[in-house]
Amino acid sequence: MSSNVLKPGPRNLITDIAGISVGNATDEKVQTGVTVLRCAHSFVAAVDVRGGAPGTRETDVLASENLVGRADAIVLTGGSVFGLAAADGAASALSVDGVGLKLSDKGPAIPIVPAAVLHDLGNDGDKEWGEAPPYRALGTKAARNASAEFDLGATGAGRGAMAGVEKGGLGSASLVLEGGVVVGALVAANPVGSVYMADGETFHAWAYEIGGEFGGKNPPTLHELPEPFPDYSRLHFRAQAGANTTIAVIATNADLTNVETKRVAMMAHDGIARAVRPAHTAFDGDIVFAVATAEKELPADPQPMRHGLVARIGAAASDCLTRAIARAVYEANR
User: Fold this and answer.
1) CA–CA separation, 180 and 210 (whole Å)
2) Which among 112, 113, 153, 211 is placed 20 to 30 Å from 59, CA to CA?
3) What confidence tens digit (pLDDT) does each residue in 93-145 have?
4) CA–CA distance, 308 with 303 (Å, rounded to integer)
5) CA angle 51, 168, 134 (to 5 degrees)
6) Does the pTM of the predicted model rise above 0.70?
7) What is 14-332's CATH topology?
8) Which residues 6+ apart lie within 8 Å of 104 measured at CB?
9) Helical (H) or strand (E) element with 317
10) What is the pLDDT of residues 228-266, one digit of tens each?
11) Are 245 and 287 in contact (CB under 8 A)?
């Protein structure tokens, strides 16, 4: 691959990758929501969990040593432990559509729908839902809403999110690499750390911005290393383990194996560290999923070349996630 300047896809969304669609469902009364990424068919998938208190569903099934290693959809949701029910709703919707494993002539299709949750239970929304949390219904609705176009900011899984002391949100970004390989990121940004520099206006991600996608604010001149716990993080105000997280999906149209897809997910975590300061604290439950649609074939040999191309995709995924986090907060606070 050459050193040409890279550009986003036509939408600058993860849906620039053919076969990927995204749907949001938001409950304004509860101030929460669900985002579902749907796959046109079962795509190779992997996950890398770095959080100290993650909330997940069906992540083990994506491990390379296990049977499936693929996903029909991925759910990002608010609601902490209650939000996991969103995957039930999404799975039911997909099964009705005939999506999923058919192990015999009897019984419904069995969709593989991994999920990750963020904690948004402390906002001002009405959480007096008793024995009927809204997340299953929201998961069904988000799965039904999936399309190539979707909103960013305070919507879907990003509705109740916070980024430091500012509103968090839902973000996305894409890059088109040489040879038609496309990489994209989708994120619900709810970190305890700050996405802003000391001026409270410039994103840590400013150097990765393309075309003013999150405001075009250049950084102030810095003559010394800034405070490691920025004023705009929540670490100056409160620190509650497991109450914050950044959950994301990376996608590419390259024909990656399950192991290679896992490597891309691992590399993409660097994008969180670029966009948030501090990142990956004990108070964050950071999770990155990755899917590969296999539309674009990478050379199998020589192996060093293939490994290099996978590293290129992982680096682009990291850059996309950095940009997507800044876009999430920018759009939520406009």
Assistant:
1) 19
2) 153
3) 999 999 999 888 888 999 999 999 999 999 999 999 999 999 999 999 999 99
4) 8
5) 80
6) yes
7) L-amino peptidase D-ALA esterase/amidase (3.60.70)
8) none
9) helix 303-332
10) 555 555 554 554 444 578 999 999 999 999 999 999 999
11) yes
